[in-house]
Amino acid sequence: MAHAHTHTVKRHSGLMDWLTTVDHKKIGILYLIAGGFFFLVGGLEAILIRVQLWKPLNDFVSADTYNELITMHGTTMIFLAAMPILFALMNAVVPLQIGARDVAFPFLNSLGFWTFLFGGVLLNVSWFTGGAPDAGWTSYAPLAGTTYNGQHGVDYYVLGLQIAGIGTLIGGINFLATIINMRAPGMTFMRMPLFTWTVFVTSALILFAFPALAVGLAALMFDRLFDANFFDPSGGGNTVLWEHIFWIFGHPEVYILILPAFGVISEVVSTFSRKRLFGYSSMVFATILIGFLGFMVWAHHMFTVGLGPVANALFSIATMLIAIPTGIKIFNWLFTMWGGSIKFTTANLFAVGFIPTFVMGGVTGVMLAAAPADFQYHDSYFVVAHFHYVIVGGLVLGIFSGLHYWWPKMFGRMLNETLGKWTFWTFFIGFHMTFFVQHFLGLLGMPRRIWTYLDGLGFNEMNMISTVGAFLMGFGTIFFLLNIVTTAFKPQNVPADPWEDGRTLEWTIPSPPPEYNFAQTPLVRGYDAYWKEKMDGHSGMTPAEPLGPIHMPSPSILPFFMGVGLFIAALGFMYAPEWGNLFGSFKMGYAVGIVGLLVLFTCMVLRSVIDDHGFHIEEDEILKDMGGKA
Amino acid sequence: MSAHSHVEGQLPHEPEKATLEGRNKILGFWLFLGGETVLFGTLFSAFLALRHQVLDGPTADELFDLPLVALATALLLTSSLTSVFAIHALHTNKVKALISWLIVTVVLGLAFLGLEIYEFTHYIHEGHGFTTSAFSSSFYTLVGFHGAHVAFGIVWISLIIMQLMRKGLTVVTAPKTYIAGLYWHFIDVVWVFIFTVVYLMGKVV
Amino acid sequence: MMKRWHYFKRLAPLMAMMVLVLAACGRADLSALNPQGPVAEEQFGLMKLTIGIMLIVVVAVFAISLYVIIRFRRRKGDKTIPKQIEGSHKLEIIWTVIPIVLLVILAVPTVQSVFNLAKDYSKDPDAIQVVVTSHQYWWEFEYPDYGIKTAQELIIPKGKTISIKAKSADVIHSFWVPSLAGKIDTNPGANENMMYFSAPKEGVYLGKCAELCGPSHGLMDFKVKSVDESSFDRWVAAIQEPVALPSDPAVAAAFESKCLACHAVGDMGGPAYPNLTGIGSRQSVGGILVNTDEPKYSNEGSVYDNLHRWIKNPDDVKPGNQMGKVDLTEQELEGIAKYLSELKLNYEQ
């Protein structure tokens, strides 16, 4: 076999570089851009929802459009904004935190991104082709079936999420393999930074939760496109089956989202308190326990479905149990700060704001766990308030914290602290204004997902407060965008450890890191590896290997085309009933669908047959990089 | 720390695990099979929930012809055994034997697939179409997903046979062959469950 | 000082909550915080218990946060390295055990209540049996023991246990009368559900659909009207009496051909869509056009006006409903609205 470094691989530049990159740092940035875009789309949908609800009997949008808005808001925020932005942080940070040059599967990493993007684009194409999905993000049958939903909206939901879901699943497997196999020497599991730990558990949850969704979506797709009878009562199907499948995926999904946010908070609080994370091993234990319990509680979304008292009692208790590991985390964070030297950077403001906010979301979660009381809360605005406290107050604050914290590492530029603080205060106050009152709206009898409400029911004032709050959150987001734009024009001159209190390996390498991350793989001598070296009086990590050429994977355009293929295939199968016949009774749509699948399979065959020898970055180039940054 | 640290021309004892790429592939594939387990688990649950909803169509008991399915089972189980021989040949660095056993595996897989296609067309003539009832939809989805996995495996192993013929056994082709073997065992295990849950239970209850 | 003030701002919503809780618990006919029957009361009791326990947690966390943020903030130029503490077994046991104790306190009444609320009254001769069938976007109430069906307004005798069997004719809906009882989903197919409740006091209680069921999900309101037992008996008798057609033959013909094809009045007409017997004495038309002689809001009007508005274009009132615009002349429309507005059941005294 020929020596790999005799191969010369074209290193692309410009647009082609971004389309073909397999570098986890660049893929992280792609995830951030795409996820950020969908966050703005979902946010705009949220604002439209709040405008519709700002006064009783409003008709700012029609009832049909309203249902499209709530469906797309939920779906977009969960699948196309929150998860990708988390994947952005995971890609940007995890390999650096474990001292790895790359992820385990760089090609699959890129494939995961492009399938997510094309799935997300497909879902949003529905706005321009006659109607977005409108059966709620939970898409309960039979409302989501063809009998009550003859348009293509739900087809987009089913296929868009299926394609995006493939990307997520790939990402999950990739990070599991990366964390298990790619750790630097000395980086034992119990020395891993907590963010890496949470990503590890989240990836495991993805691996075991997303296939359930894939089956559910496939079954619903068969019902819709090929007249199957899974969820159609007239064909012997069972609508409760969909609810089970959806929530067996859906509940772990909540923990998939929140665990990495826990990880971010752990890193940020510890760094800006200049203190070791309090109770590290109990934090790890709590993370694993939450991940495990996450699979045991799905039916608490279904207390009113009629599962019977035994199931309701068991799922009530199981759900309450989650409060215990979550409580452990909260107090560990507080005691990390206790006795520390707390610096209130924007990142830390978001982290410190997260703690009480998330506790409020957590306690309403325990309230919801009591099944008899849930008969009152369920599908009311109380639930809307609860999950926004967890997802926005928890996850989004965590994401903002993480982005402010790792921005200099990702881009080599510091975000502006003044604008950052404006972002925090407008977003934070806006958030509480929007969602705090919604608890009471629910308790006073306002069901969720209602297009409008009658006058004189006592809902008016609180809905108006909520709408004002939503606009404030919008302003917070605009401040953040402004911050990004103004920062982008500053020189890239941030040192390796810009916060000066960095504790983990990512702060030992330049900002942004070179393509190969570590010129020499570091030797890890303990938890908080960098901090330990600093405290021992060393200026950096001890290398675990001599300087030498570094093997890199080749860029590839195949993942992009695999995404394109799936996109074309989905459109073809979806529109087969309308597009007429190509010849005989063979439908044009099926032909298009098959072409799309052929593109996909051709790419897969090419990938299998053509060996990727990669290329080597030679010593002199690495030395030049090191000199340049020193 | 080059990934290609083995001596040229000499294959290490377990060539599939000789490189980091190879080890990643095997680990990643085990993880993938974990996900696949959930996938089939969900399909089985859906089938179990819906299998008595036959409406006007034939019931499982009326439909299934056990000798035919038993033959298919025997074929697939044998193919699993031949894939074990193939991996054994890989470990003893016998490329010819490896390729031969893989070809036998593919042929047995094709025979299984042929029987399944015959079985399905037969059922459709019996009035058990995909859209007949919730039972039929969930049956075809579960068994069809498995059949699609077999078909994918056949194409995949065929591609690997081609590569082995062209490139021989290397630290690149070895992990590919190894994980294809894992995959083949997995779909075999799934079939054992299908045989039990769908066919045997269909005859009994 | 700045930080302290900011923190106060964060606590402000909590105080607002206390004020709200103390000042108002919402409308007695709609709010889950203002229960009007034993089932809602039991659920409210559990809510109060959970809120109480959770307030302890929230206050503890807020207090520690506040203290930590103020006490341990970094002064300018501070270069000291705080002591690096790995953890504390004592503390960790404390904040594991205390939550477990709190959860046990919560779990015991929860489980009791789960089983209590699952009691089956469907064979109880003293209970009123009602089959609730939900439709896009209206509610059908059948009293199998009396052989009667009505729509949109569930009339119940006060104090009696009402045993509900809930199902759906199309998509999933959810039956919710917040001030009387929590909700139960109405599923299509064979997944029928049970629940029970009672209203010790006379009055009209607002009911809502609580599961997304289509564009007019938010407008799928109904009423539960609790009356004394003799009024209930009179109502049962009155609703079964035959009803005369409109006196004007032209209106009668239109009514027979256009309305009775789907709707029932007395012993005439079809059962597929809401039964109109006694519609003139109901609280609302179409569930949301509230009948009142002193209209304050845009969804209020006299019975006649509401019926006229509804029949003229039902889709304006409830988008996506199945009635559709009926082809009627203005005379027919007015005649039918008038006729229906006068279809009253006199059972209350």
Unreliable stretches of chain C, pLDDT < 50, 5 or more residues?
none
Count of individual helical segments of chain B = 6
Q: Please state the second-level CATH architecture of the largest domain in chain C.
A: Sandwich
* Unreliable segments of 5+ consecutive residues of chain B: 1-8
Q: Total number of β-strand segments of chain C?
A: 15
CATH class of the largest domain in chain C: Mainly Beta
Biggest chain-to-chain interface with counts: A-C, 102 and 107 residues
- Biggest sheet layout of chain C: 5 strands, mixed
State which percent range the strand residues of chain C make up: 15-25%
Count helical runs of chain C: 8
Task: Give the name of the CATH architecture of chain B.
Answer: Up-down Bundle
Strand order of the largest sheet of chain C: 3-2-1-5-8
Output the CATH class name of chain B: Mainly Alpha
Q: In CATH terms, what is the fold-level topology of chain B?
A: Four Helix Bundle (Hemerythrin (Met), subunit A)
User: What share of the residues of chain B does DSSP label as strand, in percent?
Assistant: under 5%
Q: Strand count, sense and closure of the main sheet of chain B?
A: none
Number of domains of chain C: 3
- SSE string of chain C: HHHEEEEEEEEEEHHEEEEEHHH
- How many structural domains in the coordinates of chain B? 1
Shape, per Cα inertia axes of chain B:
elongated
Multimerization status: heterotrimer
SSE order and pairing:
The complex is a heterotrimer of chains A (630), B (205) and C (349).
Chain A: H1 14-20, H2 24-52, H3 63-97, H4 106-125, H5 153-181, H6 194-226, H7 239-273, H8 280-293, H9 309-321, H10 323-337, H11 346-369, H12 371-377, H13 381-411, H14 417-443, H15 460-488, E1 522-523, H16 529-535, E2 542-543, E3 550-552, H17 558-575, E4 581-583, E5 586-587, H18 588-609, E6 615-617, H19 619-629
Antiparallel strand pairs in A: 1-2, 3-6, 4-5
Helix pairs in contact in A: 2-3, 2-4, 2-15, 3-4, 3-5, 3-7, 3-13, 4-5, 4-17, 5-6, 5-17, 6-7, 6-8, 7-10, 7-11, 7-13, 8-10, 10-11, 11-13, 11-14, 13-14, 14-15, 17-18
Chain B: H1 20-50, H2 60-63, H3 66-91, H4 95-125, H5 134-167, H6 173-204
Helix pairs in contact in B: 1-5, 1-6, 3-4, 3-6, 4-5, 5-6
Chain C: H1 2-23, H2 38-71, H3 89-117, E1 128-135, E2 138-143, E3 148-151, E4 153-157, E5 162-168, E6 173-177, E7 181-186, E8 193-197, E9 203-209, E10 222-227, H4 229-239, H5 249-259, E11 264-265, E12 268-269, E13 284-285, E14 289-291, E15 300-301, H6 303-312, H7 314-317, H8 330-341
Parallel strand pairs in C: 1-5, 4-10, 14-15
Antiparallel strand pairs in C: 1-2, 2-3, 5-8, 6-7, 6-9, 9-10, 11-12, 13-14
Helix pairs in contact in C: 1-2, 2-3, 5-8, 6-8
